[in-house]
Specification:
With 234 residues, the protein is of the alpha/beta class. The chain has one domain (14-233): HUPs (Rossmann fold), CATH 3.40.50. 28% of the residues lie in helices and 26% in strands. It is built from six helices and ten strands, in the order βαββαβαβαβαβαβββ. The protein has helices at 26-36, 64-74, 89-101, 119-132, 145-155, 180-185, and strands spanning 16-21, 41-51, 56-57, 78-83, 110-112, 135-137, 158-164, 199-205, 215-223, 226-233. The longest helix has 14 residues, at 119-132.
Length: 234
């Protein structure tokens, strides 16, 4: 008996729909680029946490209108998760769960993060998501951050330091561009990608953006133990 070629044909697997946890910073941009280039995945939207009252991205302090500009230049729908200042972990998880359920596409059960090497953070995310019936994806986890930081710049990513911990690095670096000169000037104890929370960035240009985002520096302030450089859209 002759085998039927159709019977042994490989059935193509459709790409996995994924929501991307978007921080507005360089790691998010590079992690998203990695997923967009991977045919196993299909990014269906972005998810970002913002602080009520301030209308800014939690952690980095990036203005909501700049976040909106990023989503528009990426051409991806954005789900905003609003949390109060000083949000408890229980409320944070509840708001995040509601945000995931509102991402808009039925059957999506994967959330991607640009975490780099903190095992405890990854374990927490995986455990929390598992309780919701979701799975985490970590496309950059385990990368050498010194090499990754320079790879981001070589790839064409342009970002500004918008928040930093003055206990870890000089406060005058707030507002600096994320470039080779900055990397060369960082204290030895600072991770080149700021993975331990030493600094946060805003990406204003990247190959995955349709156009770069014009903005200028505003006030530099100290608040809650951090130094913030405000950016305003042009």
């Amino acid at each position: 008996m002759t085998a039927d070629p159709a019977a042994s044909a490989v059935v193509p697997v459709p790409p996995l729909p994924v929501v991307f946890s978007w921080s507005a910073g360089k790691d998010s941009a590079y992690g998203l680029m990695t997923l967009l280039a991977d045919r196993r995945f299909r990014v269906v939207g972005l998810l970002t946490t913002l602080t009520e009252g301030h209308r800014r991205v939690t952690m980095s302090g990036v203005r909501e209108d700049l976040l909106d500009r990023q989503a528009a230049e990426l051409g991806l729908p954005l789900t905003k998760v609003w949390i109060p200042p000083g949000c408890s972990n229980r409320l944070y998880e509840a708001r995040m769960a509601a945000g995931l359920s509102a991402t808009g596409e039925e059957g999506v059960r994967h959330l991607a993060f640009s975490d780099l090497f903190l095992e405890d953070v990854r374990s927490y995310r995986e455990s929390w998501l598992a309780g919701l019936g979701w799975t985490g994806i970590f496309p950059l986890f385990g990368c050498d951050t010194a090499a990754l930081a320079r790879e981001m710049i070589a790839w064409g990513l342009r970002a500004t330091l918008v928040c930093l911990d003055p206990q870890a690095m000089p406060p005058e670096l707030a507002g600096r561009e994320f470039d080779p000169a900055l990397l060369d000037s960082l204290p030895a104890a600072v991770d080149p990608c700021g993975e331990r929370g030493e600094f946060h960035t805003f990406v204003h240009a990247a190959p995955i953006f349709r156009r770069s985002i014009a903005c200028h520096q505003g006030e530099v302030v100290r608040r809650d133990g951090f130094v913030y450089c405000d950016l305003e859209a042009d």
